[in-house]
Amino acid sequence: MTPTVVLPVVIGGLYAAGAYLLLDRSLTRVLLGFLLLGNATNVLVLSAGGPAGLAPIVGYAEPEEMGDPLPQALVLTAIVITFGVSAFVLAVIHRSWRLVRQEVIAVDEEDRRVADRSKARADALDPDDIDPGDLPVEDSVLGAEDRPPDLGPPTGSDVEGRLARDHAGSASDDIGLPAARRRRR
Amino acid sequence: MIVLLLLHLGAALVAPALARWWGRQVFLPLALVPAAGFAWSMTRLPTVLDGGEVRETVPWVPTLDLAVVLRLDALGLTFAALVTGVGALVLLYCARYVEAGDPGTGRFAAQMTAFAGSMLGLVLADDVYLLYVFWELTTVFSFLLIGGSGARVAGRRAAGQALVLTTAGGLAMLAGLVVLARTSGSTLLSEIVSDPGEGRLVVVGTLLVLVGALTKSAMVPFHFWLPAAMQAPTPVSAYLHAAAMVKAGVYLVARLAPGLADVPGWRPTVLGLGLLTMLVGGYRALRQNDLKLLLAFGTVSQLGFLMVLVGGGGAELGKAGLAMVLAHGLFKSTLFLSVGVVDHAAGTRDLRRLSGLGRRLPVLAGAAVLAAASMAGLPPLLGFVGKEAAFTALLEGGVPDRAAALAVLAGLVLGSVLTVAYTVRFVWGAFARTPEPPDLPEQAPAELEHRPGPLFLAAPTVLALVGLAAGPLSPLLDPLLARYAEELPLYAPETEKLALWHGLQPALALSAVTLLGGAALFAVRGRVSRAQRRLKSPLSANAGYWNLLQALDRLAVLVTGTTQRGSLPAYLGTILATVLAIPGVVLVTRVEWPGQWRAWDSPIQAVVAVAVLAAAATAVRLRQRLAAALVVGITGYGLAVLFVLQGAPDLALTQFLIESITLVAFVLVLRKLPLSIVERHNRIEKVGRTVVAVGAGLFMGLASAAALSARTAAPVSEEYPALAYEVGEGENVVNVTLVDIRAWDTFGEISVLVVAATGVASLVFLRRRTGALARARGAAGGDAVRARRAPRGRWLSAGGTLQPQRRSVVLEVVTRLLFHTVVVFSVFLLFSGHNSPGGGFAGGLVAGLALVLRYFAGGRYELAEAAPVDPGVLLGLGLLLAGGTGAVGLALGGQVLETAVFEATVPVLGDVKLVTALFFDIGVYLVVVGLVLDVLRSLGAELDRQEEENDPIEAAPDEVILR
Prior knowledge:
A: Helix Hairpins, 2 domains, B: two-stranded antiparallel ribbon
């Protein structure tokens, strides 16, 4: 099948503009880029279905003259879903603005935390290794008889304090938000 | 057999509910389930003894040639009887072991029962993939049972360690099974054993399978997970980690030995590691003070012993091995259960602190001493019979190589000496009256905490008595075990029957040597333990494992920390650059370019294209939010024209409508934001972005041109017009594709819309998203108005609630005139869509636009009057309708979502034809209306409310909002 010049140019132009906007830090521009990319993709899918034809309606055109109906069906739902996603991103923009008066894609805190962890001391306490039994309330569902002798008696040790010390500087994560402060209170 | 497995599954599923009503008594009925399995396997005994087998086949995934193939032969029956018999007794024991009122009872009961079923399935499975499934099921239940409630680090670590090790072995085993299934040409174990195929692949496959068996049965160097698993409650240790699950590896080796024992590498691996494990386990067991850990290392040692016996590949060794498997299952579970009783009664398991328990718990002590005697190999117990048979077998044959046989024998004798020594230590430590050690003043209390009742003692007593009776009665066992041994080659001059007394033979002398050696070791126990303390090995498999895991953790943190620096645009840029670097290079160098190009399909296409590109370029430069959104909208409208030219009226219609609604949504949100976007990028960033973006554009443009010439196969959609008309009963092919031919896709897509709508509402309404909007009644500034009908003298029902300067009479009049017409038009589009452009999507969007009109003209109260429903109800109803249509298709005998057609002659209307796809389309319509309404309600009405009521932040005073 011979391609047209026009459609690849439109597709390429929309993709270029969309990619440029998508790489911005402003969420509004990201959303606009997303819309352009969506439009470009819809044209791409439709143009890959073959050259222009007549509307795929039985009785209006013969099957040989019709445009390919399958890409049309795919694109139709894609259009509606793009709207759903845009509405969601708009809601995110609104939320972000209400809360912090900004609508930017901020630095990913979790990634920074992992990056900080690689510098942390090797013997730092892993949050996964905290025993709820070591927290103030001794919590042993299975009963004491299965506590192995080498584990020693329940310590009730200062786990949160150790965590705050081992991970000083990095934002406290899912184990009780401001760890150090809560202990002092 | 299937029924038995399903029975276990059913029992496991109802166990938590039953446990809520009956508490710990739930174990009594649950014990009946494995007991039924035991009874059933006994009824099949005559068949198996006659050399027959029981086989059941149920197709599972026929397209993949997978079937549930279950087979009961002599080996299967031996193991099945062991796991069901011990399982029933252990469940009985649980009824007293578990504390009354323990909240974890239901979970524990369900997991134990499910484990019993998986274990039974494992020994019955004949298909290798089915075997693997059951194999991993036992691993998972073992993980859950070791971890318990997950409240303790030690339990979690032990559970994780067992899971990691046995799953790693299991995966190796799966790979090996796949290889063996390929080389032998069958996925059935029975056929793999009878003809494993030839070549180097068989060796590879065999060794991989052995890795699985060795990890599961805790052989050196993977042995350390088993003692750690003693974190589990005692019944779990008795059942999973003594009688059943750890025997799975032994079972698999026994199962494969008849066919694969002569594969190079099999005997060195199995015999070598088995012997090493027996010695290491015995040596470590001598050192333990915790009775349970002592037994755990003893189990490791015994598993090594069993592995040597069943892995030798000779008939006489194999028979001895099976006898030992039974003996070990009986005595080791008895001992574990006894330790549980001791623990319950005395409150400790430390053998230094226990003293004189034998006199206070005579029944228990009797049972435990019997079991211990069996473990040590004292006549007349089954353990003695098995050990004698093993020694005899190795003295006269056992393995093809005589020198190897004698070396193995020497190892086994040494291992048995250790066994006797730690057995005596166990009995002495647990039950004898021992002097108070000076460094441990805290002796166990003289008064028992709990006196065990008869039910608590039943299981260990029964198991011990069976072990006692089985010794003299071992000739009765012989026919069953001989059935299995028949499959193996005989290396000894003649086969010997199992019996208690064979006369004065060298094996008897060896037994005497082990007993005397063990007793001697125990006698000098003080010196032995001092020597052990001095010889503490610096090598520890356990430490190696943790170091490995920690290194993996650190590597992960290092890699993540260096590559993920936190900037999302940078990640995205990297992805795009990768696309350019790899597929881009392929595109430029490899793709065949089309020879001919057309300029355009029609000149209008070119004009529209220029407009679209100009709009896109403007969008890149504009910094005003609303203006940028508008020019992006222009590209969308341009696209709609392109769709018309391409012959896609449905697309064009939908694109026009969506573009309008998207603009509305933009306006609703952007009115709250500043006019312009702040520039946050420096020059270098901009240049980088430009390069990547231009590259991406070029790449996609070229790819789209190449895609056309890459299409060689006939498109699937050639059939669609005929299909649509004849099967889907509609003329609009695109619409029939959506609601019938590819209705599953559409169903998924409207689900996405429901999710998106829910997300929008949840982001705007913080706490409560259900319920309709506040109605005009009682609104500030609004009179009491009657719902849904505009009061006399007004154009809109809630127009009065707006401030006068924000009202537009023209808009109100137009809205009043148009609204109902538009709604009727939307319904028309919905119904006519099957045969001409339109359908649920377009209809729903038109209805949504009508609501937009009402909202713009009359404000948020007007929206509430126009659509006094909860959008959640619309969304849910739509999804239900679409899904229900699918179910109807199924109910009418077709496939899911298949269209059914009803035709009837109704008196007034005449011939009526009803296509069920219409209801699917109505579902789509409702979902789309719900989505638009949710967007208007959240981004429109709720934002208005927040501004009017001056709600700075929607949080209550004590509420935390994460930023």
